[in-house]
Write a structure and sequence with these properties.
It is built from three helices and seven strands; from the N terminus they run H-E-E-E-E-H-E-E-H-E. By secondary structure, it is an alpha+beta fold. Strands 2-1-5-6-7-4-3 form a seven-stranded antiparallel sheet.
Length: 138
């Protein structure tokens, strides 16, 4: 069964809205992180470093929750619960560049948010998250 984002809240997955990603730590404690994301029409894409805590958590426990608050009215939000369906290194830099374009207006992450000479030095992973439940409020 495919879960869809309601048309009334599409802007919260398509626009430059920073989201909160909730994962589970190895000891069962919740872990939250503010992240950028892209939406490909089916999956939410999160790009992060291979050795980051959220990466380790999603590899071990693929169930996550993503909370997107509308910046002008936090009473309007979208909660997306989902499952990590795929983890890949392939295409990580282009995805990160798309995120930089969406969130900052700059075409590349490297050379703007990090020194250009550091591009590719830190292993990145793309986590493809398929929504399993969507709660739209406001």
């Amino acid at each position: 069964m495919s879960i869809t984002i309601p048309a009334s809240h599409q802007d919260l997955v398509e626009g430059p809205v920073v989201v909160v990603l909730a994962t589970l730590m190895p000891n069962g404690q919740p872990h939250t992180a503010v992240v950028w994301r892209l939406f490909d029409g089916t999956h939410l894409l999160i790009c992060t470093g291979r050795n980051r805590q959220k990466s380790q958590n999603m590899k071990a426990h693929p169930l996550v929750s993503i909370l997107t608050l509308y910046p002008k009215n936090p009473g309007r939000y979208l909660e997306i619960r989902g499952r990590v369906e795929e983890i890949t290194e392939a295409g990580a830099i282009p995805i990160l560049d798309k995120m930089a374009q969406l969130y900052t207006g700059h075409p590349k992450y490297s050379g703007y948010l990090e020194p250009a000479e550091e591009e590719g030095q830190y292993p990145l992973l793309i986590f493809k998250i398929k929504p399993t439940r969507v709660v739209a409020v406001g």
